[in-house]
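Input chain follows. Return structure tokens only.
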Amino acid sequence: MTESWGQFKSFDGKKFKALEADFTNKVSKLIGGQDLTACFQCAKCSAGCPVSDKVNIQIHEVMRMLLFGIKEVLETDMVWLCSTCYTCQERCPQGIDITDILFGLKNMAFRKGIRPSGYVGARQSLYDTGRLYEPTDWERDDLELDPVPELNTADTKKLLDKMKLMQLEEEE
């Protein structure tokens, strides 16, 4: 397997401890996870995935890892690079809520400290400024644009507080 586009690298040569039933049971309690065992590895999900050429493991392989209770699934690029287009879910002949399962895996990974390096900074920036990226004055000057207007972030902070986005790490 070649190196991937994301932060996580190839699993070539890595040994896995399989059949950890506790992990599979935990995943099956996620939204959509109750259908996990219906996957028969047709790979229609992977065939339609727009990020399949950017990840170190395909979505149908993620589903197999979940069934086998392989916790290293949380270290896959697919968990973070999924574009949430729902194509996999729409193509699944078994009606498995694949994208919903990936959302749950993303939360599980985050709680275990497995996350892309820029995620925490982007989350804090969104909370503090209402923006994921804060343009600099010189960037706007080069384009002859007015200064960036200040945003009232009260509503954004209220929403993010209600969602508990900033406390996600502390939950179990």
